[in-house]
Amino acid sequence: MQQDQKSELTKSLIIEEAFKLFYENGFRSTSIEKIMKASKLTKGAFYHHYKNKQEIGLKVIEVKIQKRVEETMITPLSCDGNALHILETTFVNRLRSFSMYDKQHGCPMNNFINEIGDYETVYQVALRNVIEKWKLALINLIDKGKKENIILPAVSSSAVATYLISSFEGIRGMRKLYNNDKILDDYLSGLSIYIQQLKA
Q1: What sign for the dihedral angle of Cα 18, 110, 188, 162?
Q2: Where do the domains of the chain lie, and which CATH numbers do they carry?
Q3: What's the whole-model pTM score?
């Protein structure tokens, strides 16, 4: 049992260090050697847990990126209350929660999509799964708002969900170019206007 726990801790350490390196330096420019060095593991110990970079990349998407999206952008959507209010506060709260480090490096998922989204099908599938789960949670909330006569019935739930995700991911990328939050404030003002237009 102790050996199993040690193995799991080592695997978690590798994924944690890989995630940081991918986030700060990019996936393609981060070598296995850099991850090994950051993890302070020997070559033998490292390859005992992960056979290649692709395996690590997929695990980072599953363990780090998917978890972040689920905890911060999906779970809050299932709260009770006014659908439009939940929609707006979820996006506003997430944007307001970012540290300067996060603002400087953008969205880890978006960085992956831009860097390796056209690289291999296996990455496309893994990243698309995260997006689709997020999109489905938004659609469910929007549909709930329609049933409760809070959101216009003619609104396409799928179109709104897609727009909200793409605009959020876009502003995360744009913020990397600026040294203050003015662009975020403008985005949040526009988001509020857009959400109010969905009101029944």
Answers
A1: negative
A2: 1-50 (1.10.10), 54-196 (1.10.357.10)
A3: 0.93
